[in-house]
């Protein structure tokens, strides 16, 4: 038996209400370009809208003009989606709370997650969304996930509860040391002053 190896999220499809609500939210609030639409090929009475969340992948929405929007929170039960998180730049993150408040959108305010900063709010249909900004950039040739895996190992070895800046900094240093050769015999910290 072999695994079925995934290579990333292809797309996420949500059930929407009317077409314009989806366009106004996904493009008009979150800035995701509306890239194409067509009928739902499994149900031609439903429309299928496609948005680019910023990485060339897709968020798609099934819309039906007969469905009314309901902003009640979606169920929080086993088998349901808790939230969807989207990446934003640090510069954008510092503006998110104000920009949501300008629209009257309730939100969690800034949440420090140790390795990232987050803010939570609901879309017009009750889906919980998160906008997240990493506190670090991975070294060239590495991904955020690889840095987090290394930071996790460091955190566990030290007996700490959650990843913090020190774990991230040490993880990045370790990854660079292992991946980049040096002519120095001793690559340890020094005090040249």
From TrEMBL:
Residues 8-134 form the VOC domain. Pfam families: Glyoxalase. InterPro entries: Extradiol_RC_dioxygenase, Glyas_Bleomycin-R_OHBP_Dase, Glyas_Fos-R_dOase_dom, VOC_core. PANTHER family: RING-CLEAVING DIOXYGENASE MHQA-RELATED, RING-CLEAVING DIOXYGENASE MHQE-RELATED. This is VOC family protein.
């Amino acid at each position: 038996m072999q695994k079925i190896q995934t290579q990333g999220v292809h797309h996420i499809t949500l059930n929407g209400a009317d077409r314009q609500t989806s366009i106004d939210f996904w493009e008009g609030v979150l800035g995701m370009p509306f890239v194409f639409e067509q009928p739902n090929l499994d149900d031609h009475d439903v429309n299928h809208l496609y948005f680019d969340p910023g990485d060339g992948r897709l968020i798609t929405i099934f819309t039906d003009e007969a469905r009314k929007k309901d902003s009640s929170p979606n169920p929080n039960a086993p088998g349901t989606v808790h939230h969807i998180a989207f990446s934003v730049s640090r510069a954008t993150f510092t503006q998110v709370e104000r920009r949501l408040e300008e629209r009257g959108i309730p939100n969690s305010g800034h949440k420090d997650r140790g390795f990232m900063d987050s803010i939570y709010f609901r879309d017009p249909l009750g889906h919980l969304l998160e906008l997240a900004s990493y506190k670090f950039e991975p070294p060239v040739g590495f991904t955020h996930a690889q840095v987090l895996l290394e930071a996790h190992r460091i955190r566990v070895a030290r007996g700490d509860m959650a990843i913090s800046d020190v774990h991230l900094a040490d993880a990045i240093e370790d990854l660079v040391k292992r991946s980049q050769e040096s002519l120095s015999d001793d690559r340890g910290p020094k005090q040249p002053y």
